[in-house]
Every structure is written in C-alpha cells, then in structure tokens.
Specification:
Layout: H1 2-25, H2 30-42, H3 44-55, H4 68-86, H5 101-111, E1 115-126, H6 127-139, E2 144-149, H7 156-170, E3 174-180, H8 189-197, E4 201-205, E5 224-227, E6 231-235, E7 253-261, H9 264-279, E8 299-306, H10 314-325, E9 329-333, E10 337-338, H11 341-352, E11 356-362, H12 368-382, E12 387-391, E13 395-396, E14 400-403, E15 407-411, E16 415-416, H13 417-422, E17 425-431, H14 433-447, E18 450-453, H15 455-459, H16 463-475
Parallel strand pairs: 2-3, 3-4, 7-13, 9-11, 10-16, 11-12
Antiparallel strand pairs: 1-7, 1-8, 2-5, 5-6, 6-7, 8-17, 9-14, 12-18, 14-15, 15-17
Helix pairs in contact: 1-2, 2-3, 4-5, 5-10, 10-11, 12-16
C-alpha cells in the first residue's frame, strides 16, 4: 500500500510538473495546451505517457543540415529576389500575377522558397496514370533517382517500383529511397533487404530504436521523386495498391500529383537532400549533377516546406495569404479539414465578403475521429455562406487550393493542425492561370460526382453524429 501511494504521489507530482512545462515553457498553442491539460487531469497516469509519446515537442536543435556551398547559393538567390520585390522591379513573366508579389515575398522570407518561372507542369489525378508516368521516367534515369514517400508498401505496386529501382541500380544509377518509419510500418523487412542487396540506398525517417519512440507523433508526410535533377514529382499519392483504387475499403482513389520540369526541380532536390541527410549517416554533398535543370516552360513555382522544427507555419501562412487575396473564388479539396481558428476565420471573412468558397471532402473516413472533426469544421462554415461538397466516387485524398483561377497550391499538406504543426510537409505554390484553371476544371468535374451538404441537411444530422462531432472537435488539437 505504501509503494502504491508513493507511485501515485509521484505521478501526481510529475503531472503537475508536466502541466507547468506545457503552460510556461513549451509555449504551445492555447487550444493544444488546454487539450493536453485535460488529458493529464482526467487520465493522469496514461495521460502522462501519452504526452511523452504524442505531445512532447521536437528538439529545437537543427535536424536538417546542409553543406555551406548549397546553403549560400540559396541564401544569395533569396536575398536577391527579396530586394527586387522590395524595389518594385521584380519581373513576372505574366504581369497579371504581379498582384501576388506579397505572397511570393512571404514565402521567400519565412521559408527561403525561391521563385522560378521556367517550369513545365503536368497534373495527375488518377493513380494508374501517375505511376505509369513515374515508372516510365524512372526507366530512363541515367545518373540518379531520389525517391521519398510517407507510405511505401511491399504490395503489387511496391514490387513494380522495386523492380525498376533494382534494374537502375544494377545499371550504375545512384538510387536512394527514403520512407517514413511510422507511415510505412507495414513495409516488409524482406522488401528493404532486397533493395539494399541490389545496391539501392534505403533509409527510414525517425525510426523506432527503443520500445517507445518519442518522435512517433512527428512524421515525414512528404512525397517526392527527383530523377537526374531534371524531373520532379510532388503531391498526394503514396506507394501502395490502394492508391490505384485496388482496395475495396476506399474504392477509386482521387488524388492530385504534379510532374515538374524546370528550375523548381532544384528546390525539390534540395528538400530531398535535407531529409536524406537527416536520416542517413552517408550525407549527400553538393554536386552540380544534382541540379542539372533546364528551361522547360513558363509556370511560376515556389516549393514550400514546413514542419515542427521551424518557428513559422509556412504552408499554413501561405494558405491564409492566398485566401485573403481572393476576389472571386476559393476552391479547396482536402481529406482532412480541421483548420485552426486563423484559417477558419480567413475562410469565414472571405465567404462573408462575397467570395465563392467551395470545400470538397470525402464521404468516408480512413481515420474516424478525423472524419467527424472534418464534418464538424465544414458544417461551421456553412453559416458564413461557404458551400461544402461530399465526394462520392471513392476516396478524396487531394490537397489542393485554387484562388481566382490564377494561383494554386498542390502538395502533401492537409488543412488540419497535424499538417500545420506536427508533420513535415511540402507543397508547390503555383502562379499560372492555365494550371490553376486545369485544377478548377477538375474540381468542377468532381462536383458532378459529389453531393452538396446544405445547411438544412447538416442541421438534420442524427444525435449520434452530433455526439461524434463534439468528441472529435474537442480532441481535434491533438489529432
């Protein structure tokens, strides 16, 4: 009894100390702080361990390292572009896009996101088309392949990818594969071993080395492929059969992915190198062959990264800036719509100002609590005049934001707290009317496959759904 009382007292003391740390030392967002304080209050023992695993902030030390030459090259370009924007002499290929110079400036300042205007972009919304194009490009690789996915599976699609990677490694191409340890937890060791035995370099991001992985809540959600420094892929598709629509649970998989050629590939390459150097003991050093791009088009792009290691929520800030710049319409597609108050207020203000705000979410959950919180957040915006559509043709996984048919964002970041603050994400911010309008056309096509959630229908939801929404909304800051 004495030992039990001692342990209980110790847990209470640790809970109090942890609560003080959350409030005064870690400087969390107030909603997140309150959520964790409630967890500690109502489940003091389990809550303590839950916080250590899921709530403990990541170390402030730099986790991404860069050699001096490449770092200085980026800084020089960023400073030059900032000065040009400040002096009002920055050249936009499309003068109509000069009105978004403040968005370019923001992303330059808070993420060193170099703006390039010589890119060609292809949009893929179907998994078969995307992976057929990717495999075709992989087969033509001559120098290197850099591939990074949050989820990699050793299923049929994973085996198709492996066959190509092994073949290219045998031909002398440098092949590197980086996957997230948590996202790819079902990846078979035999799959990884087979790749390594063939000469493919493989690493896991934040792998579990102890019984408890204290970084389990901070995942690398990025999906990138760079081939010979000339071709880059970025978007929402992971490597797995479900992304080809082969899993009955989800049905057809609707996503958005980009194939990029041009100077923006350099930024994709840099992002991969930073992530690889964090995960691997064999750093990639600067080499011109990794930056072998050429002029391929006239699409303006900034590649923007965000993560829990940075002071600013770069992608979220970019989203808000885009929303506040809207004059005509804002079209959003996301599987998880759990915006914090800043994004929610921006959308409310836009809708109340007469901007046409359309939000599209899936009709089925892959994470139940997240789904009900998404439904709740969407419903809240109906009163401001936003329109909400429920995609019915399978599972919607696209992460797109389009404003006025002029600018857009496509990448890995959802509109939720996890993407804004906990995950390592990367998006392409696109400045091009043609690309933006292609995304608008795809959105409008998806409306034909959706049902509209009106205010009347939302108010008629059952008591059970209201209860699920309430619970999910309460814990949304820690989802």
């Amino acid at each position: 009894m004495g030992i039990l009382s001692f342990l209980l007292g110790l847990i209470i003391i640790l809970n109090i100390a942890l609560g003080i740390s959350i409030v005064f030392l870690e400087r969390k967002d107030p909603t997140s702080s309150w959520a964790w304080l409630m967890v500690l209050l109502f489940i003091p023992i389990a809550g303590f361990f839950l916080y250590l695993i899921f709530g403990k902030p990541i170390s402030n030390r730099r986790i991404f390292t860069w050699d001096k030459k490449s770092r200085m090259g980026v800084k020089t370009t960023v400073q030059s572009q900032l000065r040009s924007l400040e002096d009002k002499d920055f050249h936009f290929n499309d003068k109509a896009l000069s009105q978004y110079g403040d968005l370019v400036y923001l992303l330059l300042r808070n993420d060193d996101a170099i703006f390039s205007q010589d890119n060609a972009v292809e949009i893929y919304t179907d998994g078969e088309e995307k992976f057929n194009a990717l495999i075709h490009d992989l087969q033509k690789a001559k120098d290197h392949i850099h591939m990074q996915y949050y989820i990699m599976r050793s299923d049929e699609l994973g085996q198709r990818i492996a066959e190509v990677l092994i073949k290219k490694a045998n031909e002398g191409v440098d092949v590197r594969v980086l996957y997230d340890d948590m996202g790819s937890r079902s990846l078979k060791r035999s799959y990884v071993k087979r790749l390594k035995n063939a000469g493919v370099m493989v690493e896991a991001f934040f792998p579990s080395r102890l019984i408890i992985n204290f970084k389990i809540n901070y995942r690398n959600h990025r999906k990138l492929t760079i081939i010979d420094g000339k071709i880059g892929y970025i978007g929402g598709f992971n490597v797995g059969d479900e992304y080809l629509g082969k899993k009955k649970k989800f049905g057809y998989w609707r996503d958005t992915h980009l194939r990029v050629m041009g100077e923006a590939v350099q930024s994709l390459q840099t992002r991969f190198i930073l992530d690889w150097n964090q995960a691997s003991k064999n750093d990639i050093l600067y080499d011109d062959r990794y930056y072998n791009t050429s002029v391929s088009g006239d699409v303006g792009i900034q590649i923007v990264s965000s993560g829990p290691d940075t002071e600013w929520e770069q992608i979220k800030n970019g989203y808000i800036k885009m929303i506040m710049a809207a004059k005509e319409y804002i079209y959003i597609q996301t599987p998880y719509f759990i915006p914090d108050e800043s994004v929610k207020d921006a959308l409310r203000i836009a809708a109340l100002s007469g901007v046409d705000v359309k939000i599209m979410i899936p009709n089925k959950p892959d994470h139940p609590f997240v789904y009900w919180a998404t439904l709740s957040s969407s419903g809240e915006l109906l009163t401001a005049g936003a329109e909400v559509f429920i995609y019915q043709n399978g599972f919607l996984h696209a992460k797109t934001l389009v404003v006025d048919g002029k600018i857009a964002s496509v990448g890995t970041a959802n509109i939720d707290v996890r993407s804004f603050r906990l995950n390592f994400e990367v998006n392409a911010f696109l400045y091009d009317s043609e690309i933006a309008n292609q995304l608008v056309q795809k959105f409008n096509s998806d409306i034909e496959l959706s049902t509209q959630m009106t205010k009347k229908l939302y108010d008629q939801r059952t008591l059970g759904i209201r209860f699920k929404e309430s619970i999910s909304r309460l814990i949304s800051p820690v989802l």
